Amino acid sequence: MGKKLIISLACVSALFLTSCLRLETIIRLKKNGAVTTRLVYVIAPEMVDFGRSFGSDEPWPLPLTEKDFKQQALRVGGVVVVRYRTHKLADGSERIDVKIVADSFEDISNYLALDFDIERQGERGSLIFTLPDVDDYEKADTERREILDAFAEKSTFRFSFKPPAKPISVLPGEIDGRTASFEISLWELLYNKAPKTWEVHW
């Protein structure tokens, strides 16, 4: 392994060890079936720069630029990106705030590449979100896994859902007014320690 590559790997390792990610997905289902989604990322500045250095066509796991979000909308159809904002926070982190409007829950599910199942009967209904499984993470190289673990333990994903009527139950998570929500860490996802499903009934 060349000296430059060793230095590069050391820099990437330090980047993950000192960084964190907070991602919130807020989904609102309207009575007519349309869906409004707000994605809010809070990312350490070095992680944002690292991700953007790849460009839109490279294998960075999260869309970051307005172009990224709009290209995804063109690929799946039925989705429009209506707002894209970035804001520098006091600690140097960057917040990326995106609003997306979809014609249906199927369209937003395709856009986010997440497994949502919606059932509606009159004013009542349910949402079942099946969380993704991560295959073979525990079989990965120990050193690399330890580096990612340090990043994953500090990174969180929060999901919020606003159905057409007030939610009556959520598992797991909590209800605040008309919003059901729950939060997990990236570490829980990587080790498949997160709940298999998230259910909201209204």
Please describe the structure with a list of short key phrases separated by commas or semicolons.
disordered N terminus; 202 residues; 6 helices; alpha+beta; globular; seven-stranded mixed sheet; single chain; four-stranded antiparallel sheet; 11 strands
SS element count, helices: 6
- Largest sheet: number of strands, sense, barrel closure: 7 strands, mixed
Strand element count: 11
> What order do the SSEs take from the amino end to the carboxyl end, as H and E?
HEEHHEEHEEHEEEEHE
Termini Cα gap: 57 Å
Report Rg.
18 Å
**SS-derived structural category:** alpha+beta
Shape label: globular
The amount of helix comes to 25-40%
> What fraction strand?
35-45%
- What is the averaged pLDDT score? 81
Taking pLDDT < 50 over at least 5 consecutive residues as the criterion, the unreliable ranges are 1-19, 53-60
The order of strands across the largest sheet is 3-4-2-1-7-10-9
How would you describe this structure to a colleague?
With 202 residues, the protein is of the alpha+beta class. The chain is 29% helix and 38% strand. It has helices at residues 3-17, 45-52, 66-76, 105-112, 142-153, 186-190, and strands spanning 21-29, 35-43, 79-88, 94-102, 115-121, 124-130, 156-162, 169-171, 174-176, 179-185, 197-201. A 7-stranded mixed beta sheet has the order 3-4-2-1-7-10-9. It has a 4-stranded antiparallel beta sheet with strand order 5-6-11-8. A hairpin with a 2-residue loop joins β9 (174-176) and β10. It is globular, with a radius of gyration of 18 Å. The protein starts with a helix and ends with a strand. 21% of the residues are buried.
